[in-house]
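Hey, sorry to bother you again with one of my protein questions. A protein chain has come my way and I'm curious about its shape. I'm sending you its amino acid sequence along with the backbone structure tokens. I owe you a coffee for this, so here goes:
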Amino acid sequence: MCLNHGPMNEDDIYAKSLVLHKYLFGVELTDTVMLITEDKKVYFLSTKKTIEFLQQVMDAEDKGNFTFDFQILDKSGRNDDYYKKIVKVMESIATNEEDGIVRVGVFSKEWECNKDAVNVAGLQKAIRDSDVLDIVDVGVGFGITLGVKDHEELDLVIKSSVLSNKVLTHCVIPRLEEILQNEEKITHEALAEDIEEIYQDLSKVNLKIHLDQVSTAYFPIIQSGGEYDLHVSAVSNSNSLKFDVIIVSLGSRYNNYCSNIARTFLVDPPKVVSDTYELLLQVYDACLEVMVPGKPLKTVYVTAVQKLIDAGRDDLVKCLPKNLGFGIGAYFREGSLALSEKNNITFKDGMTFNLAIGLSNILLSETDRNQANKTQVRT
């Protein structure tokens, strides 16, 4: 398995290689080449500072029968000899393979992104030029493996969730109430910035946590006014907050473990909207009940659909998103653990999920439309 990462990219804090680096070593190893072989040999090529750190860690920890090879990076780019050494190590395994081909596991998305990272790209080119090395993506398997967490990891996820809940309960909701009572004019983006600033002063939520242990998992998402996007990639725009259906989504990171929370606030809604939201809460509870070890992840989606049908609201089935959540933890959104209608992976003890049930583009009658335009609700 070849885990390489070039320079740090602030837009890519959830790169799988960095997540695994932090899982194994507690730090992000940027500008680093790392190769792990089946016979428990680990090769590192990185900066002098990183190599010195890794050597100290390996000297202090139980090595578990692993052996390590360290090489300091030549910043001028003259690392070809070490690239050849690593490729030769990988190629030597070919004699044990029936077809003479060695599969090198990588994270494909990052593999492509590293092509412009000079130090890392050098090794990647050497691997591509080999006649017996075949690149395969191991991202899905990695996501499933780290989806199961030990007790320490579960504790970190719980603490992250407590933080998200306290930010929402003790800061966001009171702020929203203040805005509504005073009919204050504020944009979605400005309100999101207010929420993000809370993570710089956690005394507001009565938590004594070192600030270097926490951060937002993403820039908070505030939406209102009839235009909504229920994807986790949505952004808070510069439109003014409307006092109708307000959606707030925020996430926290505690010691690199993530949590997420989203709530819908209805301001003087038509009865059909409040009734639909009550049904949405029932769907959420029904889905939560079937999230038990041994059942396939797709059970969640099937349950949501059946609940809507049983309630006589077949029309809302088409309003469900393509998936109803995802695995969450050190990696914010694990796509291989999406709660979609076709995911046959089973729930296991120790897995953690963000369950997000939403309805979008709900059609209203002419009478209801006069009270509120196209509406969306989410929990």
The radius of gyration is 24 Å. The longest strand covers residues 245-254. The mean pLDDT is 87.
